[in-house]
Amino acid sequence: MHVGEPSRGAGGSGSAPYAGAVFLLFGLATRQKPLGAGATRTCPRCHNATTWARVREHRQLTLFFVPVARWKRRELEVCGICGTTIAA
Ligand SMILES: [Zn+2]
Asked: What residue spans define the domains of the chain?
């Protein structure tokens, strides 16, 4: 689980009592959209040769649950056995 830790880095100072409420209005998340089957690869971690899943991922800012900005779009392939991701 190296890629995408969505709940890290929100606040953290401990001195903002309204951080929870603010976080409901302003959301920052990593979205992944499956694109179907990718290449057949031998996984560097679990060493199984399987068809990996292709995923498009982007960072997304939402305001009142409406997406207002997207950036850092990239495509990944994900091992179906252990979940390792690589840039594709
Ligand atoms: Zn694997």
From this structure: 19-87
